[in-house]
Each structure stands twice: as C-alpha cells, then as structure tokens.
Amino acid sequence: MASPLQDRAFHVQTFGCQMNKHDTERIVGMLESLGAHEVSTVEGSEIIIFMTCCVREAADVRLHGQVASLKNIPLPPDSPLPKRLVAIGGCIGQRDGEKLHEALPHVDVVFGTHNLGSLPALLSAAIEERAFQVEVLDSSTGFPTDLPTAREHAFAAWLPIAIGCDNFCTYCIVPHVRGREKSRPLEAIVEEAEGYVAAGVKEITLLGQNVNSYGRDLYGEPRFADVLDAIDATGIERLRFATSHPKDLSDAVIDRIARLRSVQPSLHLPVQSGSDAILRAMNRRYDSTRYKALVASLREACPDIALSTDVIVGFPGETEEDFRATYDLIDEVGYNQVFTFIYSKREGTPAATWDDPTPREVIQRRFDSLVDLVQKRAFEMNQAWKGREVSVLVEGTSKRDETVIAGRSPHNLTVHAPLPSNRTATDLVGRLVTVRVDEARTWYLQGDVVSIL
Ligand code: SAH
Ligand code: SF4
Ligand code: F3S
C-alpha cells in the first residue's frame, strides 16, 4: 500500500546549529524515500516541518509567531489534505512536547531530537487519523545517521560523530534537549566517510557538541585523534570539525591539525568569557591562562591557523572588570570570526536562577563595543591575505551578485571572485579553484580566479 506521504509536498524550516541542519537532511531523505517531495516555499507545501532551536530566547519567540501566521496561508488548491500539516521537531519539540499543542492548537505533530525516524509514521497517522500526534523520547535508541539522507550540497557532507553533551555549562540548554553524549563507533564513521569520498564529496565536517571528548563513553578514553587519522586516510580532500571544547583539546589533536593533509588550518574554539570568575560560574573547567596556552600551542604547531570563537556577554554577575577581561582576550588572541551572544536566560539551567543586577543598557553597551572590536580585528587579520593565492571550494554565487562566485578557503574565510568569462556558476560549484586575493574586507576576501583544478 502506498504511504499516505506519497506525492505530498513538504517544506522544512531549520533553525539553530549544524546538528539541526544535518537532522533536516535526514528528514528530507526519509520523506523523499516515501515518495514525498521537498518544495522551497511554505505556500507550495502541504506539510511544513519546523526544526527548532531553543539555545536563546529569540528563537523560541520567533517560532510561535511563525506558526501562528501560517493560518493565513492557504493550502495549494490541488491538495487532497483538509489542511496544511504542521510538524514541530528539533530542540523545542524535545523540550516542550505535548505542551506545544496547547499553545499552538493547529500543530499536528510534535517530535523530539531522539526520534527523527518516527516522523514519517507520525505524519502518516496525523493524515489518516486526523488527530494530533506526539512522540518525544528521553534518550535515543539509534543514530539519525542510520536513516537515509539528502545532502544540502553534493560536494560537502556533515558527519555526526557524537550526539548530546555531558558538560552542563550552567547557561546552556543543549544537554537538556539533546541528552547525554553518545559516540558512534569508529567503524560506522569511517564507512560513512568512505561512501562520501566515493560519491565525490570534497569536504567533510565532523559534528559533535564536543568532538574532543569523542569516544569517552564508548572506549573509556577520548579517541578523536584516531577519528582524524582514519578519515584522513579515506583520501577526503578537506576535513573540518566542530565544536571543540577547550578543556578537552589534547596535544594529540593539535598534532593532527598541524600534520594531517586533509585537516584544514582553522579551528572553532569557543572561549565564552575572558574572566576566570565567570568561566568558573559557567562551569567551563578551564581558565583564561589555560585557554591562551592552548592558542599558543596551536599557533606553534600550525602558525597561520585561523581561529573562531563564541562569546557570551552579560552572564549573570558579569562586572565591568569581567567584561574588560573578555574584551582584552578577544583583542589579544586575534580571531578571524567571533560569534557574540547576549546571555539569554534558559529555564531549567542553573544560571537561570541567578539574579543579575546589571541593567540591560549596560550589557548592550558592552555587547556593541565587543562587536566593534571583532569587526576591527577581523578586518585587520584579513589584510594579511592580500596578494596571496588561496584554494577555494566554490559553494555558489554571492548573495548580492550572481556573476560573483563565493566559496571558502582552507582557513575557512569566505572568498569572492568574478565568474571567469567562459564559465557558468553551475560549472564551478563543488570545484576547487585558485584565487589571487587583491582586496580584503571585514567578512570576505576578494580576487580573481587564476586556475581551476
Ligand atoms: N557545544 C557547542 C555549541 C553550543 S551552542 C559549544 O560548546 O561550543 C552555541 C553557542 O551558543 C555557545 O557556544 C554559546 O556561546 C551560545 N549559548 C549557549 N547558551 C546560551 C545562552 N543561554 N545565552 C546566550 N548564548 C548561549
Ligand atoms: Fe552547551 Fe557547554 Fe555542552 Fe556546548 S559544551 S553544548 S555550551 S553545555
Ligand atoms: Fe539550538 Fe538545539 Fe543546536 S538548542 S544550537 S538546535 S542543539
């Protein structure tokens, strides 16, 4: 019997981190394998799936508005369904479960982060029984990686090596909505990577909330360096990974970053704060001295490594002096990219119960001054690339100009170049080209293509 999902048009809106984006690829793969097809607009869809994020409050609030506004968008006229099906998954689905139906009565399906594989059955039941369906599990039985996938780009793949997180930073909801850290067996990771290499994938990004502790639950000790060795041996062109918790970044991993052919010279190393008192209150389990020593080791092993980081401004109790320590650390380290966040209270985390007397305007002023610094430093750091040739994996065209191709350098810098005269963008997407950089802006480098590999 054909699935009730056969021929249905679905649309997915994804928020949050790469884990969610990857989960979306699995959802698309699963639904397509049942005869449904993805469409790019809400208007054209009969089923809409929200892959949600609740790491900060703004995302939470936005979801409610978006779901509410769907009521005004009619279903495509040829649809046999009585109404557009609305499904909510991801981290808000996991956190709120059934409660979402009370707040948003026209939601038809809620699923969590541990049971992506149940989505087709839940959607089918919602169609056949015309009744609300919810399934949220406390922990997962398998990996979403056992499900079919439809990758966003043919030339790049995300590959989860572990799911969940054991670190319980005091501000963070992630361990509460993704569960405890669970590593995938090394053989399964390598097999998936080999499949990608055989399919012509050029770049693999290993995913985990803390890739550096990979294997602790499975093998009794972290084995991330072994993962890097094994994936490098598959012959993949470019290998990246995120995220690295500084407390678990080992000498062995630093050695692989410096030495392995495929491991790209860039690292995302979230610092969160430069103040030791705040780092302690955050339960990060490193101090600023240890963090700076790691940066020094990384630069010794791999002198031109590009670093990026995450920072939270306005953590409860942050004083002007604490903020100054963060500002100085960011200035001193010199990052190519800094993701700055204003602290957002998350119910259920320890920090949510801590009072903070700091006025909102003071936090905003600190945040703005940090953003100015980040831009100034990124601009300065990018100047070093002027006149150099960089290899660029072409991802598409610039958002503003379709005659300009855009991609990333080994250092994970965005590079723009005019499309060479005898080429189309489609020809070049997924290919490696060499660009000579002649202009360095704050967020990207610009130059001309000198050769196509
Ligand atoms: N596991 C990763 C990513 C976690 S979420 C890591 O540890 O780096 C991504 C970023 O969101 C975090 O690094 C942190 O800077 C930010 N973040 C998490 N919870 C937050 C909160 N409650 N308020 C503001 N920013 C937060
Ligand atoms: Fe959240 Fe900390 Fe885990 Fe990252 S390491 S996901 S910030 S608890
Ligand atoms: Fe957001 Fe969940 Fe990722 S809360 S950051 S989508 S793990």
β-strand percent reads: 15-25%
Number of strands: 19
Q: Give the bound compounds.
A: S-adenosyl-L-homocysteine, iron/sulfur cluster, FE3-S4 cluster
- Percentage of residues assigned to helices: 25-40%
Secondary-structure class: alpha/beta
So what's the CATH class of the largest domain? Alpha Beta
Radius of gyration: 23 Å
Largest sheet: 6 strands, parallel
Strand order of the largest sheet: 2-1-3-4-5-6
Number of helices: 15
- The second-level CATH architecture of the largest domain is 3-Layer(aba) Sandwich
Description:
The protein is an alpha/beta fold. The chain folds into 4 domains: 9-135, Rossmann fold (3-Layer(aba) Sandwich), CATH 3.40.50.12160; 153-264, Transcription Regulator spoIIAA (2-Layer Sandwich), CATH 3.30.750.210; 297-383, 2-Layer Sandwich (Transcription Regulator spoIIAA), CATH 3.30.750.200; 386-452, Nucleic acid-binding proteins (OB fold (Dihydrolipoamide Acetyltransferase, E2P), Beta Barrel). Helices cover 34% and strands 21% of the residues. The protein is built from 15 helices and 19 strands. The chain has helices spanning 18-33, 57-69, 90-96, 99-103, 119-129, 174-178, 186-198, 216-219, 224-232, 251-259, 276-281, 288-301, 320-333, 360-383, 425-428; strands at residues 9-14, 37-38, 47-52, 85-89, 109-111, 133-135, 156-160, 162-163, 182-183, 203-207, 238-242, 266-268, 306-313, 337-342, 389-397, 404-408, 414-418, 432-440, 445-452. The strands form 5 sheets. Strands 2-1-3-4-5-6 form a 6-stranded parallel beta sheet, with helices on both faces. Strands 15-16-17-19-18 form a 5-stranded mixed β-barrel. The N and C termini lie far apart (48 Å). The mean pLDDT is 95. It binds S-adenosyl-L-homocysteine, iron/sulfur cluster and FE3-S4 cluster. The site of iron/sulfur cluster has 10 residues, from helix 6.
